[in-house]
Amino acid sequence: MASFEKLRIAVVGAGFMGRLHARSIAESEIASLAGIVDPVEAAGREAAALFDTHHLASVEDALGRSDIDAFVVAVADRQHQVAIPILEQGKPVLLEKPMAHDLDAAKRIAAAARASDARLMVAHILRFDPRYVQAAERIRAGEIGDPIHASSGRLTVRDVGLRMNGTSSVCFYMGVHDVDILQWLSGKNVTTVFARAAGTLMASLGVDSEDAVFSICEMEDGMVGTLHCGWSLPSDMPTGIWARSEVVGTKGVVDVDVRDHGLRVMGPRGWRLPDGLHWPEVNGRLAGDLREEIGHFVAAVRDDRPFVISVEEALRAVAVNDAILKSVRSGRRETVADWRL
Ligand SMILES: NC(=O)c1ccc[n+]([C@@H]2O[C@H](COP(=O)([O-])OP(=O)(O)OC[C@H]3O[C@@H](n4cnc5c(N)ncnc54)[C@H](O)[C@@H]3O)[C@@H](O)[C@H]2O)c1
Questions:
Q1: What is the Å distance from ligand 1's center to 16 Cα?
Q2: Which atom of ligand 1 is nearest to the CA of 167?
Q3: Where are the domains of the chain?
Q4: One-character DSSP codes across 93-148
């Protein structure tokens, strides 16, 4: 496509994340929104009306059109295989994280992209967050020496677990961010894991899900890491993003603390810590990491440049999560399976 043309992108999934992507694309100078796909007619029509585009009932309908250049796929974790027919047609896809809900499904998606040479980027949004990106760059530049050990984790409020209602593991909906951060920041792969889950809260609320999962990771070159994720925080926490990451090296430390984005508001609900970086509204438009992510995807497709995260890196995060859930079930240390195709 000529560089002055906008990339026409359809969004698959009209839920929480799909609507954020749709808005971000509709507000973009380099992309345009070419439709919203959702088999649930009410949700699809409502979102399409909101962003002044048309509703399509299925991916097959969308693939029959000539006015769609690329797709954002934002359906539930266990349905990411809807990206396969799109990739088989060679269309570029920005696929929400996690790449899939298990390694077999992720490998099928990667194989479809490879077979047709389609561009595929998994939307690990923290790859566009200035705090994490600077942490990775400073470690690469040698500022902390060689990484020795690291930890990364995030908790959110229990309302998210209730909304998900057992449709995704907390390891895949949330924890996959930290699996990627641990391996990306340290530059080392996780080789084995030992994991335990807490599960009393969600069970008491009638939800078939872990509350939180804690893992000890053996990593390459003798490194040790820990991971944790959970949707166990009380509903009245001032923020839904309670996350920290730390890498300790032979010469120093990198510490990322994103529990507070620098803005504190005291109101009728007590202190609130609003999102200042992921997708804040700034002067009437969505800004932050999400806008950077869409901008990068469009520019990399248009200019045929590599994405900042490779398919292999997304696959290896899924492989670690598979081993974590296996260890929770077996009660033993588990080896991370080979994620390579
Ligand atoms: N990057 C982030 O920070 C972040 C945050 C939240 C969610 N996510 C990811 O985004 C994805 C979507 O999560 P969500 O919370 O928006 O889910 P959601 O349940 O709110 O929305 C999913 C939508 O997909 C639709 N859908 C189901 N099958 C479909 C199909 N075959 N074709 C088209 N649409 C279909 C559903 O009807 C629903 O409207 C998940 O993979 C999740 O992990 C990412």
A1: 7
A2: 19
A3: 7-123+287-309, 129-278+316-335
A4: EEEESSS-SSHHHHHHHHHHHHHHT--EEEE-GGGG-HHHHHHHHHHHTTTT-SEE
